[in-house]
Amino acid sequence: MMVKARGPVWHKKQKAQGIVPKGLHGLDRQATWSYSRADGWLYGHGTFCLATHHTHLLGAFKWMPNSAHEAKRLQAEIGRLERLVKVVCMDSKADDYPLYRQLKDDYDIQLLTCLRRGKDKSPERQQMRAELNTERHRRIYAERGHTVEPMQSLVKDVFDLEQCWMRGNESNRWLFAAMGVAVQIAQRDALRQGESTWRIKQRVVGI
């Protein structure tokens, strides 16, 4: 998830040259640019989110550079969970055959993702497509639309996170981590009491 930086936007070309226009105050100099189909180009900070499929629980919510490669972050995070996770789903940003093979060979984790069109020319990519298109794998991947995807929206709603609360990498790194922990604690308590793990805003913010 991309979160708008607090303060004004620093034009991409001017940022690359280190030029701060006169009169531009309160600038987050460490924010970066990134693009998504949903949000377009956005200057701010990114978040990395892990969520479970079978039970609606947040696994991790962490800061990451807005311009960082999400698939590489997935690769770094998921290896720690190799004994707990057997299947991991991610959007087309994880459409990478070396990543697919490494997760399978090194961690015995099946990566499910959405392949880009026209990118299955090689025998390896054709095998990857065949494995992803089994009925079981298509069913599991379809679950992320109502289990994983809404989880970032939940955090965003709980903390009114349309815009970063603070400026800079260090500030947002610990703040986003704290948000993730707060949501996890609230969801754990709700789960223990047999209540919805989605309706937790009051537990987190006390309103």
Description:
- The chain has 207 residues and is of the alpha+beta class.
- The chain has one domain.
- It is 43% helix and 16% strand.
- It contains eight helices and six strands.
- Strands 1, 2, 3 and 4 form a four-stranded antiparallel beta sheet that branches. Strands 5-6 form a two-stranded parallel sheet.
- The protein is globular.
- The mean pLDDT is 91.
Keyphrases for this structure?
single chain, 207 residues, alpha+beta, four-stranded antiparallel sheet, two-stranded parallel sheet, 8 helices, globular
Helix content: 40-55%
Note the quaternary state here. Answer: single chain
Total beta strands: 6
Quickly count the helices.
8
SSE inventory with pairings:
Layout: E1 2-4, H1 12-17, E2 32-36, E3 40-51, E4 58-65, H2 70-78, E5 87-89, H3 97-107, E6 110-112, H4 123-132, H5 135-147, H6 149-158, H7 169-192, H8 201-205
Parallel strand pairs: 5-6
Antiparallel strand pairs: 1-3, 2-3, 3-4
Briefly say what this structure is.
This protein has helices at 12-17, 70-78, 97-107, 123-132, 135-147, 149-158, 169-192, 201-205; strands spanning 2-4, 32-36, 40-51, 58-65, 87-89, 110-112. It is of the alpha+beta class.
